[in-house]
């Protein structure tokens, strides 16, 4: 494989994945040991991984038509994180995938006018328009969800079948589903509720947007009512919300949690369903562990309070960092859409009197940007700035805020790597 750096000004794209020869802007390929920051080094790695992924997804197998461009860009987005994670596990790339790709996709995909994944296009302008956040980040998130549903080994074996069957040819989504289904069947694995890959995936590719799962507990008999509707940020938008998604669900409770096990327990395939989970009234329930399912979760207020109390205790880290980021991001966006009182996410913020992990902090500061924007021209903005100044106090006490050379950073442990990233995030926030 050849890689070519093109001088600045001669290349409008960031990089291009021609077969056997990948071209880049100089800035995306040249690494200077004494000048390139660790954050930028990670960024360069993701670009190289993205373009290399296209050697299979795009070059070896090309989509039948532009409407399926997500078969290229979705996989390239997924593997730009997955491949770097294998090369440098301390960077926790798949955790970063949740906050930087999945949650990022959910912002624009919650508009009333977002498109579905297989949308057709016939003119050059319309085709260019398909290279959007749906084709890249949403498709990457839906692919990650599929990996979780069928398990990683079946997913990778299925991709092998798909790529071998369609080598030097064109593919459409059903070819992908057939390949993964063949791997699932060959392994003897049973997808929850005996659904097929195609049945599940078609609800995610043909419906525009994504759902919010509402979880309402019956504290007398331990059962839970699960219901779904499309999540649209502006609740005033006049949009039909009768679409159904096949939503993969797994759960954790205070006394029974394993945030390393992502097995799907059941699917919600109807508008709503009641499940008897025999929950203990005083224990929190968390759904969609690690936010591997591409949807938001809302709870009844009592369960939100149970989660908040736990996150405000010394046990907070028993809930995984991606799920802490999920609770923060979901609650802020649910409040923003009018589905939840702002009191809930504001109380959840007490987490950050203890939590100094980069993953939840990144999600939080991203969500805070919106609050900042809304309050900018109001009388409350001075109060917000005071509040904002207090925010990082718990973190800054423990952070290495001194400027340090890149070489020194490279010798550090993965933990320090995230501390460097968090330092930069906090300093940016202080500059509001
Ligand atoms: Zn690409």
Automatic annotation (TrEMBL):
It comes from the Eukaryota. It is found in: Cell membrane. Keywords: Aminopeptidase, Cell membrane, Glycoprotein, GPI-anchor, Hydrolase, Lipoprotein, Membrane, Metal-binding, Metalloprotease, Protease, Signal, Zinc. It holds the Pfam family Peptidase_M1. This is Aminopeptidase N-like. One of its GO terms (molecular function) is zinc ion binding. Its cofactor is Zn(2+). Gene3D superfamilies: 1.25.50.20, 2.60.40.1910, Neutral Protease Domain 2. Coiled coil: none annotated. InterPro entries: ERAP1-like_C_dom, Peptidase_M1, Peptidase_M1_aminopeptidases, Peptidase_M1_dom, Peptidase_M4/M1_CTD_sf. One of its GO terms (biological process) is proteolysis. Residues 284-391 form the ERAP1-like C-terminal domain. Belongs to the peptidase M1 family. One of its GO terms (cellular component) is plasma membrane. Residues 1-204 form the Peptidase M1 membrane alanine aminopeptidase domain. It is a lipid-anchor; GPI-anchor.
């Amino acid at each position: 494989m050849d890689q070519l750096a093109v001088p600045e000004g001669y290349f409008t794209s960031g990089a291009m994945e021609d077969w056997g020869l990948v071209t880049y802007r100089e800035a995306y390929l040249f690494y200077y040991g004494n000048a390139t920051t660790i954050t930028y080094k990670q960024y360069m790695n993701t670009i190289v991984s993205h373009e290399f992924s296209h050697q299979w997804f795009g070059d070896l197998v090309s989509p039948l038509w532009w409407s399926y461009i997500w078969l290229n860009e979705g996989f390239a987005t997924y593997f730009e994180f997955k491949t770097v994670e294998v090369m440098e596990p301390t960077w926790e790339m798949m955790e970063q995938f949740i906050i930087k790709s999945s949650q990022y996709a959910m912002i624009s995909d919650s508009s009333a006018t977002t498109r579905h994944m297989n949308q057709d296009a016939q003119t050059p302008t319309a085709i260019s328009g398909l290279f959007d956040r749906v084709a890249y980040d949403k498709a990457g998130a839906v692919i990650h969800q599929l990996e979780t549903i069928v398990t990683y080994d079946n997913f990778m074996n299925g991709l092998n079948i798909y790529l071998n069957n369609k080598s030097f040819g064109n593919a459409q989504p059903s070819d992908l589903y057939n390949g993964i289904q063949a791997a699932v069947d060959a392994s003897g694995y049973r997808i929850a509720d005996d659904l097929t890959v195609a049945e599940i995936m078609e609800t995610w590719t043909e419906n525009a947007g994504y759902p919010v799962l509402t979880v309402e507990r019956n504290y007398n008999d331990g059962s839970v009512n699960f219901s779904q509707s499309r999540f649209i940020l502006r609740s005033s938008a006049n949009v039909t919300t009768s679409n159904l998604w096949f939503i993969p669900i797994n759960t954790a409770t205070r006394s029974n949690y394993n945030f390393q096990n992502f097995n799907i327990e059941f699917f919600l395939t109807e508008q709503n369903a009641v499940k008897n989970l025999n929950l203990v009234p005083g224990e929190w329930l968390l759904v969609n562990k690690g936010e591997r399912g591409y949807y938001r979760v809302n709870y009844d207020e009592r369960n939100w309070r149970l989660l908040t109390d736990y996150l405000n205790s010394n046990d907070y880290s028993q809930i995984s960092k991606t799920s802490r980021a999920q609770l923060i991001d979901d609650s802020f966006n649910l409040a923003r859409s009018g589905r939840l009182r702002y009191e809930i996410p504001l109380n959840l913020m007490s987490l950050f009197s203890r939590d100094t992990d980069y993953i939840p902090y990144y999600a939080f500061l991203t969500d805070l940007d919106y609050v900042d924007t809304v309050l900018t021209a109001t009388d409350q903005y001075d109060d917000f700035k005071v509040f904002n100044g207090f925010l990082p106090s718990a973190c800054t006490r423990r952070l290495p805020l001194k400027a340090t050379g890149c070489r020194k950073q490279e010798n550090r442990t993965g933990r320090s790597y995230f501390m460097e990233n968090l330092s930069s995030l906090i300093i940016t926030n202080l500059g509001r």
